[in-house]
């Protein structure tokens, strides 16, 4: 066991990913505190990441040859995405059974939905590369569906009528990241069925579907590789800059916000691991290590921006929500390196 922990803590790739995320978040915090970048700049960074870099990251993660095992894993992660959110709905009610009224709804929504896109995906990309990114984007399909349906209904108090359903479905399927994910996923799934193009790779002629632009149109694909490379550093800079803007002293004294943050960043990922371990060992829903690790990092992400926006927009514990958002982000930044190390130890023990 000690040897496993030692090999994990000396893994240069893991150490590099952990240090990079912490260092760039700290840099973003410093730049904002020193007014080198202003609040407008940090908001622009966020928009660039969400509308350009993360869609490029999502799309390019599917630019690979289809593999039977990866296809099975992707399908299992898609199923697990829907299952875990369905499971968390009653579990969150049990966790917060002593909390009454509107605050319980706020607690539950903020606990179920984390910042998987903006916080989780860049970390997954840095640690687990293209395969982890692919699983993360497949997992996020279910996340988006529940975020714009269940979370909206709970926070707004409204019933999902035809007009609301139409509006929220647009939010789901017209989101740049979801569009890039669906397009990339379809190309990946049907690449062998589409018209083939002969491409010379390392002196050998190979056949690729014409939409596999990484091979058929490399000059068109190249800009996407630059954009995807920006996703993690820009997201981390933005997180640091955002942390620098929030009055930490007022939030730090709110004990229930601290309690929520520990539940969100520690307990929910543990529940995810335990359930997946049971399903994996019983053969009901077998998942590979990278798939499991991806879901853990996504579940350990802090409060989702959209969920927090719902609470503030509909005046549902707005101050409490703001404090939860801040403290959960701080806890997640501290806990994420620990989670990465724990996951690597699990990998080295061959549990998954």
UniProtKB/TrEMBL annotation:
Which residues span the membrane? 12-32, 44-65, 77-97, 109-128, 134-153, 173-190, 226-246, 258-279, 291-312, 324-346
Main location per the UniProt record: membrane
Compartments where located = Membrane
Q: Which GO terms describe its biological process?
A: transmembrane transport
Q: GO CC terms on record?
A: membrane
User: How does this chain sit within the bilayer?
Assistant: Multi-pass membrane protein
Which keywords, in A-to-Z order, does the entry hold? Cell membrane, Membrane, Transmembrane, Transmembrane helix, Transport
Give the protein name, as stated in the record.
Auxin efflux carrier
